C-alpha cells in the first residue's frame, strides 16, 4: 500500500519537473504551458493525497477548483498561441516580447 510519503514524493517530482521546464526552456510557448500544467498537477496530487490521509473532503473539493482553473487557463493560453502564430508565424516566447503594451 502506498503511504502519504510516496504521494508527496511524486508530487515533489512533478513540481520539480514543471519548474525546470519553465526556467530551462523559456523559448517555446507550448512547453511553458505544459510545464505550468505539470505544476498544477503536482498541487492537485498533493491536495488529494493529504485529503485522503486526513479523511477530509475539503482537499478533494479544492482540487476540483484547481482543475477548473487549469482547464480555463489552458484553453485561453492555447487560443492566444494560435492567434499569435497566425499573425507572426512563430510561437517563440522571446520573439513575442514586442507584443507587450
What's this, in brief?
This protein is an all-alpha fold and 101 residues long.
What does this structure look like?
The chain is mostly helical. It has a domain at 26-88. Helix content is 77%, strand content 0%. It has 3 helices and no strands. The chain has helices spanning 4-24, 29-54, 58-88. It starts with a helix and ends in a 13-residue tail after the last helix. The mean pLDDT is 87.
Topology:
Elements: H1 4-24, H2 29-54, H3 58-88
End-to-end separation in angstroms reads 53 Å
What percent of residues adopt helix (DSSP H or I)? over 70%
* N to C succession of SSEs: HHH
Low-pLDDT ranges: none
Q: What would the average pLDDT be, to the nearest integer? A: 87
Question: What's the story with the biggest beta sheet?
Answer: none
Total strand count, please?
0
Helix/strand/pairing class, anyone?
Answer: mainly alpha
* Beta fraction: under 5%
Rg for CA atoms: 17 Å
Give the CA-based shape: elongated
Number of alpha- plus pi-helical segments:
3
Amino acid at each position: 500500500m502506498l503511504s502519504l510519503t510516496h504521494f508527496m514524493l511524486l508530487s515533489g517530482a512533478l513540481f520539480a519537473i514543471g519548474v525546470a521546464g519553465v526556467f530551462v526552456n523559456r523559448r517555446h510557448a507550448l512547453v511553458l504551458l505544459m510545464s505550468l500544467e505539470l505544476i498544477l498537477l503536482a498541487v492537485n496530487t498533493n491536495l488529494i493525497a493529504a485529503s485522503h490521509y486526513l479523511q477530509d473532503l475539503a482537499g478533494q473539493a479544492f482540487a476540483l477548483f484547481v482543475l477548473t482553473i487549469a482547464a480555463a487557463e489552458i484553453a485561453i493560453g492555447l487560443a492566444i498561441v494560435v492567434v499569435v502564430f497566425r499573425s507572426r508565424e512563430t510561437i517563440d516566447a522571446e520573439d513575442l516580447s514586442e507584443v507587450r503594451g
